[in-house]
Amino acid sequence: MHTTESPVELAGVTRVYGKGDAAVRALDGVDIAFPAGSWTAVMGPSGSGKSTLLHCAAGLERVTAGTVRVVGGDITNATDAELTRLRRTEIGFAFQTFNLIASLTAEQNVAMPLRLAGRRPDRRDVRAVLDAVGLADRRRHRPRELSGGQQQRVAIARAMVTRPAVLFADEPTGALDTKAARAVTALMRSMVDERGQTTIMVTHDPAAAAAADRTLFLCDGRIVDRLERPTTREVAARLAALED
Prior knowledge:
ATP binding
């Protein structure tokens, strides 16, 4: 169990794209800590900076100013090698597009992060995580033989197999129908409740956000509001107010 009180912390984080008159301030002095064992949803209008926030927090993008700490270490000026090692050991990713390898089975896709980290996959561990996402009987199926919801669950299993301190999810229900989206959010909720998984999720789906412990709202690169365990209706109303 990872015990870092706030495994992800951003202090004064600014991210600027471009220069001079063409400069765009995607993040503007963001201060936020994500508590261990909690699930935080990040929402906002298009262009609000929510994906940039996720990418900077995960070390996928460099910040222009401020500091980023992940699992107790300052990654602001980390080398590419250090960031790669961090992403292979302490961070898991689940994206809207799944990013599964079409020629590999579900079991082989899940084992891939272990192989990339130079570890010999333990078949029992791989099957255990597939069982945890309800796909033990689909382990030999390739992505084309799985539904969208099943592919997303394979992607989450792949993110979880290394037992990361933090799971970053970027629109994990965005490509799913309502039933599949509910199944994925229920799975993510159980990982937080049963495993103490720290989860940070960008979403545009009020129902997905309402499954989280809290929802942060961004506008123009700043955190402008937050709700604790809101209802779907409360999330939708707050988001609509920001988009007006």
